[in-house]
Amino acid sequence: MMQLREISCIGSRGLNLSTIVLAFLLLTLLAMQNTTSADDIGRSTEDLTGAFSLQKTIRLASSSECFFGEATADPLNPPQSHEVNAMKDDQPPGLAGFGFEPRTVYVGSDRAINFTAHFIDDQSGLWASAAYFHSPSGNQTAVVLFRMQDLTSGTTKNGVYASRMSISNGSERGDWQMENITLVDREGNRRVLQREDLMRDGLPTAFQVT
Q1: Nearest CA to 209 among 128, 70, 110?
Q2: CATH tag for 94-209 (out of 3.30.420.40, 3.40.50.2300, 3.90.930.12, 2.60.40.1930)
Q3: How far apart are the first and last CA of the chain?
Q4: φ, ψ for residue 190 (rounded to 5)?
């Protein structure tokens, strides 16, 4: 009986040794797999960082384009209003008066023509107006602007504006005729009056450069 017990003990020690070896091998394999996964995760993070940087650059370029567009905006286009108003203005401004002096300008005299205009817009008020003229040949054009800072009396809803047009030495001689005058209110409603419209009301539409 004693001999059998010794054999059993030796068998148990052999079994324990095999189990330890197998466990060591399994731990080694698991450690190798964990190292590979960590490397893969590191590479994925680098790739994600690169993609984010590229998207950020695109946004910056887009912002620059938007800024450039605002800097060169049409002075007759008012800023967009996002207010909800049941009585929203949908009527364009009206012209109650228009004139300028002198009617004759001499080239080389560094003279300017003084313009006055009376605009009415009883709801949102005038945003801006522009009167366009062309030379006798049509090759040259001139524009006089009326904006908020040109208001001399009254309000933007019923006011008189004053502006100036300088005549340079290279201006073509002859009669300069108005093409039209455009009026825009704060809601973007626009009215374009042609030369004939002003003539019917007895308003001046031409000046002479000599």
Answers
A1: 110
A2: 2.60.40.1930
A3: 141
A4: -125, 135
Structure token pair of residue 196: 């004939």
**Cα–Cα distance for residue pair 165/85, rounded to 1 Å:** 38
> 162-197 pLDDT, tens per residue?
999 998 888 999 999 999 999 999 999 999 999 999
The per-residue DSSP string of 6-26 comes to HHHHHHHHHHHHHHHHHHHHH
User: In Å, how far from its chain's centre is CA 156?
Assistant: 25
pLDDT in tens, 10-50: 444 444 566 666 677 777 766 666 554 444 444 443 343 33
Peptide bond into 78 cis (omega under 30): no
Domain boundaries, the chain: 7-73, 94-209
Neighbour tally for 187: CB within 10 Å: 20
- Measured in degrees and rounded to the nearest 5, phi and psi for residue 19 equal -65, -40
Q: pTM of the full predicted structure?
A: 0.63
* Cα angle 175-118-184, degrees, rounded to a multiple of 5: 90
- The two structure tokens encoding residue 197: 């419209």
